[in-house]
Amino acid sequence: MKALRRTLTTCATALLLGPLAPVTHAGEATPMAENPVVEARLIAISEELRCLVCQNESLAGSRAELAEDLRREVRKLIQDGKTDPEIKDYLVARYGDFVLYRPPVKPTTWLLWFGPFALMGGAVIGLILYLRRRATRVEPSHLSAADRASAEALLADTPPRPKDPA
Predict the structure, then answer these.
(1) CA-CA distance, 22 to 27, in Å (whole number)?
(2) CATH number of 2-15+31-104
(3) Which tens digit of pLDDT belongs to each residue from 49-104?
(4) Residues paired with 58 in a beta bridge
(5) Where are the alpha helices (DSSP H) in the chain?
(6) How far is CA 38 from the centre of its chain?
(7) End-to-end C-alpha distance for the chain, whole angstroms
(8) Rounded to whole angstroms, how far apart are CA atoms 154 and 68?
(9) Per the count of CB atoms within 10 A, which of 51, 58, 61, 97 is most buried?
(10) Which is more confident, 31 or 39?
């Protein structure tokens, strides 16, 4: 009886406190800039920057702490009067071309830009060479006279002739 009462009490507590669980995990909303123009520039710039923690998410969409710090830094640079290219140059100087979603084409990023095409070209050339080698290795099979007669009978839809005992 005690076990049933304890189970019912636990279930009732879970049902009553369950709806409050999302409230306890809610974080504070990030404050908007006093100036909506600054916030719009921040969003435009941070959409073109990669989160260094998430790597597949833009700085604007990331919830990582480093992304928050970088957004704060970009907001400060905007308020200091820096232009968009100056802000991007500052972040590239600090974190490298990886911070940009569209890094420039230069010798250090050639592998990034042209590597997939080189791999695809190599794969196509390898496939062509493999198929050519395989075609030269395959020898046509020779049928015996009895097998040829049986195949012709199947194709002609006639009963096959009896096989020779030899």
Answers:
(1) 10
(2) 1.10.8.640
(3) 988 888 788 888 888 898 899 999 999 999 999 999 999 999 999 988 888 888 88
(4) 50
(5) 2-17, 21-25, 36-47, 65-79, 84-95, 110-137, 145-156
(6) 31
(7) 90
(8) 76
(9) 51
(10) 39
Residue 78 · residue 41 · CB < 8 Å: yes
- For 86, residues 6+ apart whose C-beta sits below 8 A from its C-beta are 77
At position 32, the amino acid (one-letter code) is M
Backbone angles phi, psi at 58, to 5 degrees: -75, 160
Secondary structure letter of residue 82 according to DSSP? -
Q: Kindly list the domain boundaries of the chain, sorted by start residue.
A: 2-15+31-104, 105-136
Q: How many helices (H) and strands (E) does the chain have?
A: 7, 0
pLDDT, tens digit, 9 for 90 and up, residues 37-63 = 888 899 999 998 988 888 788 888 888
